[in-house]
Design goal:
Rossmann fold; alpha/beta; 8 helices; 33% helix
């Protein structure tokens, strides 16, 4: 295996520290597991502000070999389309690769669109909701993906894009020595802007987005819950009476 790339989004935890998206930690763990079994090289690709270099350093501490941070004001405000375009362009420059691993979804938008859109941009086969990587050769792999009512086993040609779910594994903690090295040796982390990956500002960020958020709000609940008080016998009696009253039993 030549290389496995784990694409990440960076989630803001405080004004000074960024960490990788939770689902992407499982993608990185899957990449490290493949590296331990088959060999190869892991490059972590993340898009975010300069502070997101913390997340990339942590990924190197967890077992990645190198990192690339896509950071440019032109990338800000991107929807999933513009984000996928940015990641796709960067992957084209970072290649060749055998496998692109992504988390199922980001912690902020929860759209689960980035992995499939990156695959579409690159013209690669993709499998989503991957639970297990059972077998991998130079030309293909066999994976198990979760469905609503069970699992599905799929053989997929390589290179490919996989999105993995949180049940797939348990991400390891960063190795202290590797984490210190990653923080001290910035040469392991490349920082690319829009010009570096060959995109125009109109293709990425807010300007390149096909969708725009007009408003975010919490849903209003039309029904009010009612808490029944008393001992078990009294509460059960009142509950049964109310259910009968509403013709539910």
């Amino acid at each position: 295996m030549n290389s496995a790339l784990s694409t990440q989004h960076s989630a803001l935890l405080s004004w000074r520290y960024y960490e990788h998206n939770p689902d992407d930690a499982h993608a990185l763990e899957a990449a490290v597991d493949l590296k331990e079994r088959l060999g190869g090289k892991i490059t972590v690709l993340s898009m975010g502000p300069p502070q997101a270099i913390d997340a990339v350093s942590e990924a190197i501490g967890m077992g990645a070999d190198e990192g690339i941070l896509l950071s440019d004001r032109a990338f800000a405000g991107a929807d999933t389309w513009a984000t996928s375009t940015t990641l796709g362009k960067a992957l084209e420059k970072a290649g060749p690769y055998d496998l692109v691993l992504c988390g199922r979804q980001a912690i902020d938008g929860d759209t689960a669109q980035i992995g499939p859109q990156v695959a579409e941009y690159l013209g690669l086969p993709q499998v989503s909701y991957v639970y297990d990587i059972e077998k991998m050769t130079k030309k293909s792999m066999v994976v198990k993906r979760r469905l609503e009512d069970g699992f599905e086993r799929i053989q997929c040609a390589l290179p490919a894009v996989l999105t993995v779910i949180g049940d797939m594994n348990r991400p390891r903690y960063p190795h202290v020595a590797r984490l210190i090295d990653a923080c001290g040796e910035k040469a392991k982390i490349k920082i690319w802007n829009a010009a570096d990956i060959g995109v125009q500002t109109r293709e990425v960020g807010l300007e390149g987005s096909l969708t725009h958020v007009i408003k975010t709000f919490a849903p209003k609940f039309k029904r009010q819950g009612e808490m029944l008080q008393g001992d078990t016998e009294t509460v059960v009696g009142e509950l049964v009476a109310k259910l009968k009253e509403n013709m539910l039993i």
